[in-house]
Amino acid sequence: MNAAPVSYADVNRIVLGALSRPGRRYWLVLALLAAGVAVGLACFAYQVKMGLGVAGISHPVGWGVYIATFVFWVGIAHSGTLISAILYLLRAHWRLPIYRSAEAMTVFAVMTAGLFPLIHLGRVWKFYYILPYPNQRHLWPNFNSPLVWDVMAIGTYFLVSSIFLFVGMLPDLAAVRDAATGLRRRVFTLLALGWRGCHGQYYHYGRSYLYFAAMATPLVISVHSVVSFDFAMALQPGWHSTIFAPYFVAGAIHSGLAMVITLLIPMRRLLGLEALVTTDHFENIAKVMLLTTGIVGYAYLVEPFIAWFSADVFEWSMITFRASGPYAPVFWLMTFLNVVVPLSLVWKRARRSLPWLFVMSLAVNAGMWLERVVIVVTATAHDFLPANWGLYFPTWIEIGILQGSLCLFVALFLLFVKHLPPVSIAELKAGLAAPEPKAPASKAAMSKPVRTLAGRLGAPGILGVFGNDRAAARAASLLQTAGFKAVELFAPFESHACREAMPMPPSPVRWWALAGGLAGLGLGLALPMWSDSIYGLDVGSKPHPSIPSFLIIAFELTVLLASLANLTGLAFYSLWRGRRVPAGVYDPRFSLDCFGLWAPCAATEQPRIQALLEASGAKEIHAHAG
Amino acid sequence: MPHASLTRRDFLKIAAVSGGLAGCHEKPPRSEIVAPPVSPEAAPGIPAFYASVCRECPAGCGLIARHRDGRVIKVEGNPDHPIGHGGLCARGQASLQGLYDPDRVRTPLRRRDDGGFEPIAWDEAIRLTGERLAAARAAGSDRIALLSGLEAGSLERLQMTWAQALGSSRVLQVEPLDCDPLRAAMQLCFGADQVPRFDLTDADFILSLGADFLDTWISPVESARQFAALRRPHAGRMTALAYVGPRLSLTAAAADRRLYLPPGAEALVGLAILNRLLGGGRELALAPADRATLAEQVAEFTPEQVASRLGVAAVEIDAIAQQFATARAPVALAGSPLAAGAAAVEAAAAALLLDVAVGGVGRLRPHALGRSARPAAIASLLSDLRGRSADVLLISGANPVFALGAGVEEALAGVPWMVALTPFLDETAARAHLVLPTHTPLEAWGDFEPEEGVVGLQQPAMGAIHESRHAGDVLIELAAAAGLAPDATFGAEDFRGFLRLEWQARHLSAADPRPFETFWEEALKRGGIFASPPSAAPAFTLSPELANYRFQAAATLPDGVGGRGPTPFAGPVIHAFPSIAFYDGRGANKSWLQELPDPVTKAVWGSWVEAHPETARELGCGEGELVRLTSPHGAIEAPLLVHRGIARGVLAVPIGQGHARYGRHAAGRGANPLILLAPPWEAEGPTPVQASGLGRTGDLVVTARDFDPGERPIVPTAALRELDSEVAGEPFLLPLPESYNPRSDILPPHSHPEHRWAMAIDLNSCTGCSACVTACYAENNIPVVGKENVAEGREMAWITLQRYDVRSNGDPGAAERTTHVFLPMLCQHCDAAPCEPVCPVFASYHSEEGLNAQVYNRCIGTRYCSNNCPYKVRRFNWHSYGFPAPLHLQLNPDVTVRDKGVMEKCTFCVQRITAAKHRARRAGRPLIEGEVEPACAQTCPAQAIVFGDLLDPESLVSRLARGESRRYQVLGELRTRPAVTYLKKVRIDIV
Q1: Spatial separation of the C-alpha atoms in residues B565 and A625, rounded to whole Å
Q2: What is the value of pTM for the model shown?
Q3: Does the beta-carbon distance from B833 to A540 stay under 8 Å?
């Protein structure tokens, strides 16, 4: 058990230590997972060659475990963004040590989920027909179809959550870069995109990150709502239900949190993160799960109640089939795993027992997968006309593809946690109580030799190195008061103190995000309406244009383009701006545990600045006379 | 999927490549196909139509073969023909697959000593047999025998002439389902050696004593049409049907009242009804003396006595008797084709006597079935063959080894030289020394006269695809090889010449003023000559022998028959019934028919044993369990299928499966119940069997298991008594803009500028015969997926017959009172179709003419449309299914062949709509009502399916959809506005 981190160095040691060279067991596990993926690929290839009949799906159950698993993985994806975006907006600080891995889980879960709609296609080699791309026939996808909404929603979710993950990692990538040598350093130099943690970068970065969080939040709600529309928009008894969207979102978070627990418990142990990820964090997750358990349980009760109350013969027959037909064992097992087992979390002891939480999380994972199977299969197996009824059981091909997808997910996650910072270094540091600077102008500090490193700094000026952000902020404040406006502050994280010391107007990134959002809204309405006007094919007597359908497209494109514009704005201001500091000024310690204050100045002004810096508690002062 | 064959798609690929190499010269699919002899008008890409006769059963329906680019691609009923009136059953539709059967014998074959066959040249085969014939002829008279299938026309006369010329009189026609008990009853009652067909026209009550006239009995297409006409409610009246028989046949399903009784018990019920009829109340068409004698003869068969013997309530029999006695023009039918013994004959006799008594004897017309050999004659021939009194045996178009049991096989073993003239290497041909491949009916000339005055003329609709020859030509060549001069013997060089000679005689006797060639061409075009039925039907009078006859049915029935009531269960009896798909077994190698679900049990690709739940309990066996049935004559194994539509104590097994040879689909599949029965010449009555469960599950594959609609309002029925008062209200939304109400509908209407195609299906007419299903396979290139795939729910039928058992109120569970509704289910072409908006790629969309169109090239196979279809009528290609050569030659070039991964479904035969529109446009006229007819509607024997344009207020479909009081939409409450209007089935509650 590592000691609780108290210093920046502790954080660096623990997190960067997790990225140490993996052992043979790690590679062995990865090799096994790769073999699992290969088996899944072989099953898929066989299915493409022979036709979908090698799977158990048939008439009338046209969707089986493929679509159920798709819904399951999309659901898993939800909690990452919930923790990183929604809890960020709610300033719930317990998210800090867990949000990075949860976000990575999100991205990999979406990637895994995205495979299944392709796997279940009859003609997967024509999958691109579903994408809105210009073609010589002017035939666009049917923007009325929930499947196209799915493509837009899942695609947007994947892109936005990937960008969110990457942008959030930028300071940490710089930290890894600065702590590494050799190949890893070269790779992370590329990945960090020249991040230097200077004040000018953080100024846009903070805003931008906030917008990402703000845009990801409605996505969390919308994505599983759209996925639920695959069912809710259909006529099938058991699918056609108005509670599906909230029911699916709650279920998604339920399963996603369970997956977070499932992944975190072994991860913190294997990577030695016990000091960062504590039982308190698990208890917090458990509390949220208690809420989702309630919602899921409520939905389970409401479904049969509505069916009974409506006295709809088809709906009621469907519900009784679910609860007493051949799939009844699956249905009751699902209810037990998803509701009864996690209800144990009402006891504090259960919430704080990691072994129990692990068991409970596995139960909910299995239960939520079964829930999707129950929804997908039972409704089509037993619909309106008894002569059409039939049963479905998966074949070995489906099971092979399923285990392959699970192996792929785990392998991606394993690769991530050992090669990219699994915990946010920068935000953890921001959350630490910074050591109070010693009394200023001590003898030792005053007598610190001033080294003139002309060649290294590259431009005339003075660089002060500080051990904590408040000292650096105070120095920056003093310098500005003294009339030195063009100072630049380097920090390993976005410091509140520094932001207050160097106040700036709101970042123009917001205008980029707004412009992107508006463009997305316009495009999202214009493209479907324009494509509808070309052929105007009649589908199910839908009107031309079908504005309500197109609003879903418009929503997704709004978020997508706003996010992309936000990213572009961030890159333009933040990364571009970072380059304007002379190359030699940056010190690798600035991404780890030191703060730098750079004041470009002529040689004549240097003594005054030096005095100010020394008075603020600078550890080191570097000067370049020019 | 194994498909080593050349599919059309493959062919086009190859053609495209080699076409490029060979200067864009595209070869026809098969070079050996020659244009048919009468095709001056056949042009590439333009269909030509040839009239012919269906020879899949003795009914002799007329058909029209659609010929395109050198091959027949579809057959349909000939609307001019008085038997079928344009209808054709499933077997008739599948006759194409006989022509293109991949397992046809392609060259003459000679049997090797090891039992295998080797090809032999035609000349050699003819020479060898000719020598044998010459030797046999020289050895004495009757040393040559010819066993033929039922022929009623020129080939029969050629056979006679041939045999005579070779010094033999032994020409026997074997028709396994020849209704011999009915013939015996005709002999008994009227002294007439005939099998009659019954004219149902005008009947207002029909009593069927085990006669499945809507299934396979005598002339099912004709009967179905007549019955459907009688079932159209008019002024509060409609013909009622009562059925007494062992199981839920299609005829039983159509009945308003049924009595499930073991085979043979029909005689008792028939006699009891006769007893009641003779007892008074109705003026009878019987001489008083006859009436008195008859009354005395049936005196012991009071309904009470019979009812107690059978363990049923007397009121059940009384009710039927009452109905019969009070009907204006009742008709009784009897004589199931396979029943044997006194009980079967007496059941038929009871029906005939009932008909005589009510003056309905004029309904009887001699049918061609009466030409078949009586069992005694066959037995005599077989015993002669065993005694080696024949040197050469020719078997032409018959498979007695399969149909008549092991005794035949053993008798044939004694024949020194046996020649089989057949397209197929069936069980009988496998015993032959020489197999000579003959044409299938669609390649052959011929004629068939099912009843007097109706002579169907057969012409080849295409050239032969193998080295086969006409059976008649082979006979002529054999005669020549045996040293006879064809010209002198037959008056012609070949069968076609012989046929023309025969027709010249007809021309003369018809006293037709036109020259023969005109007469001949007219007959070819029309499909034959159809004299109007003679106004005075042959008058049958009661035979004097009848008075001395003592009815003995009660005595001959096995103990325990009845199984209900006080009589103890004494072991089950077997009921072998002809299946609608295979008839006597000849359909078993046709994949369309193997994959056609039995309309009652929904079983496919195999055999099954039907049993009542109580019988199953007595046997200690469960659904699907393999049971072994043993009789003194043989044993079979088949899975048990339990349902309530069967008499207790009866095990019913369909005929047709259980072939040892015959082809890939037939051989080794299922079980042949005929081997449990005594041969017809020995049979004395119902055959008791020992049944035992084998404790393991058989391979029973059914396409549906749930027949109970429960509370679902999907098959509402209408009581005849309430019909006029019934309001045609309910939510009925026409698939037209007029049904969209801006106040209650969110969706806007969409207009149909020219046409709005729609269909109406009368559930009161539909008998469940399933002809529509097979017609759709033939028209739309629907692949056959095989047993394993059907078991997984992957069958591709675009139209299926759903069966629902509607229990009448207050009498739950009584199988006898259940209303059975067959619901033909196909794409409903909804106006607000749920399948369309969910398709992400516009593969499914709504055409301007109201069709729910499916664009195969666009489909990526998400199957969302199918999930969202409340009718589940969409079919997904789970694999690529092949069309083994030469079956691929049958493919309709107007319809895309689909590959794996795409969704498909009923198109309302859009290719026919397009063709009709082109035809009309070229002629510069509007489409005529009825001009467009989808394959299902075209073939429906009951004419239950009507297709047309809803925008035309005068069209029949329009009038039915708008004004018929029985109209309803299946799942209409979903507001999808289906374009298929169903007309409710009408119940007649016989009290």
Answers
A1: 121
A2: 0.92
A3: yes
What is the location of CATH 1.20.1630.10 in chain A?
A: 8-431
β-strands B330-334, B205-209: how paired? parallel
What would the pLDDT profile of B88-117 be if each residue is shown by its tens digit?
A: 999 999 999 999 999 999 999 999 989 899
How much is the CA Rg of chain B, to the nearest whole Å? 28
pLDDT tens, A578-623? Answer: 566 777 788 888 888 888 888 888 878 888 888 888 888 888 888 7
Does residue B41 belong to the interface with chain A, where contact is any CB pair within 8 Å? no
A1 touches chain B (CB under 8 A): no
Contact of A270 with A277, CB cutoff 8 Å: no
Q: Which of A539, A546, A550, A553 to mutate to test the interface with B (most CBs of B within 10 A)?
A: A539
Q: Do A387 and B800 touch (CB under 8 A)?
A: yes
Q: With respect to CATH, is domain A8-431 assigned 1.20.1630.10?
A: yes
Q: Residue A69 — φ and ψ, nearest 5°?
A: -70, -35
Q: Say how far apart CA B446 and CA B519 lie, in whole Å.
A: 16
What residues of A are in contact with residue B837 (Cβ under 8 Å)?
Answer: 142, 144-145, 539-540, 542
d(CA A360, CA A370): 15
Please name the member of B705, B789, B864 whose beta carbon is closest to the beta carbon of A147.
B864
Say which residues have a Cβ less than 8 Å from residue B672's Cβ, sequence separation at least 6. Answer: B402, B585, B607, B636, B655, B657, B658, B659
Exposed/middle/buried for residue B644 (C-beta within 10 Å: 0-12, 13-18, 19+): middle
Report yes or no for ipTM above 0.85. yes
Q: What is the pLDDT of residue B813?
A: 53
Q: Do A51 and B901 touch (CB under 8 A)?
A: yes
Pick from A48, A314, A385, A552 the residue to mutate for testing the B interface (most B CBs within 10 Å): A385
Compute and round to an integer the Cα radius of gyration of chain A: 28
Residue B908 zone, left/alpha/beta (φ > 0; ψ -120 to 50; rest)? left
Query: Per DSSP, what are the bridge partners of residue B447?
Result: B457
Residue A547 contacts B where some CB pair is shorter than 8 Å: no
| Long-range contacts from A302-310, C-beta under 8 angstroms, 24+ separation | A302/A243, A303/A241, A303/A243, A306/A241, A306/A243
Q: Residue A251 — left, alpha, or beta (φ > 0 → left; ψ -120 to 50 → alpha)?
A: alpha
pLDDT for A291 beyond 90:
yes
Query: What topology is assigned to A459-494+594-624 in CATH?
Result: Alpha-Beta Plaits (3.30.70)
Number of Cβ pairs < 8 A linking chain A and chain B: 208
> Nearest CA to B718 among B706, B708, B727?
B727
B871–A388 CB contact, under 8 Å? yes
Please determine, for residue B35, whether its predicted confidence score (pLDDT) is greater than 50: no
Closest CA to A314 of B82, B126, B871, B483: B871
Cβ-Cβ contacts under 8 Å for A145 (sequence gap 6 or more): B837, B838, B839, B840, B864
Tell whether B807 lies on the interface with A, counting CB pairs under 8 A: no
What is the least distance, in Å, from the CA of A325 to any CA of chain B?
A: 13
How does strand B650-655 pair with strand B573-578?
parallel
DSSP per-residue codes, A432-457: S-PPPPPPSS-HHHHTPPPEE-HHHH
Q: How many other C-beta atoms are found inside a 10 Å radius of the C-beta of residue B808?
A: 14
Q: CB–CB of B604/B596 below 8 Å?
A: yes
Residues of chain A with CATH 3.30.70.250: 459-494+594-624
Tell me the pLDDT of chain B averaged across its residues.
88
Decide if pLDDT at B903 tops 80. yes
**CB of B803 within 8 Å of any CB in chain A?**
yes
A14: three-class secondary structure by DSSP: helix
Which residues fall within 8 angstroms of residue B457, CB to CB, at 6 or more apart?
A: B51, B52, B53, B446, B447, B503, B523, B524, B527, B528, B529
For A494-547, write each residue's pLDDT tens digit.
888 888 888 888 888 999 999 999 999 999 999 999 999 988 889 998 999 999
